[in-house]
Write a structure and sequence with these properties.
elongated; two-stranded antiparallel sheet; 2 strands; binds zinc ion
Length: 105
């Protein structure tokens, strides 16, 4: 039997000026997580569907804010080498930071 996990995904479309090429572009920012036995709270409890939704919903405005600070168009993003892929790296780091903050709060 194949198990499929339910993905919770929220999107936000933002318009900005690319830091690299200066062109105006529209990007879709996606916040997503799946409801699965490995998606747990820091204390080990498995997140419920509602809790996963809440995480995704909380992450989205943070991702949008982060992206707006370092807005880059798709074309420029595709053209930079991975160590320079600051958006991808900071996105992950940022989410981790948020996770740690949530743990304390
Ligand atoms: Zn660009």
């Amino acid at each position: 039997m194949r198990i499929t996990y339910n993905e919770i995904k929220l999107k936000s479309v933002i318009k900005g000026v690319c830091l690299k090429c200066g062109k105006t572009a529209i990007r879709t920012i996606v916040s997503n997580q799946t409801v699965n036995p490995f998606n747990r709270h820091k204390d080990g409890r498995i997140k419920s569907g509602q809790e996963v939704y809440d995480s995704v919903n909380n992450d989205l405005p943070l991702l949008v804010k982060r992206f707006k600070e370092k807005f880059i168009c798709k074309k420029c993003e595709d053209n930079i080498s991975w160590p320079e892929k600051w958006f991808d790296l900071t996105e992950r780091e940022y989410i981790e930071q948020i996770g740690r903050k949530g743990e304390k709060g």
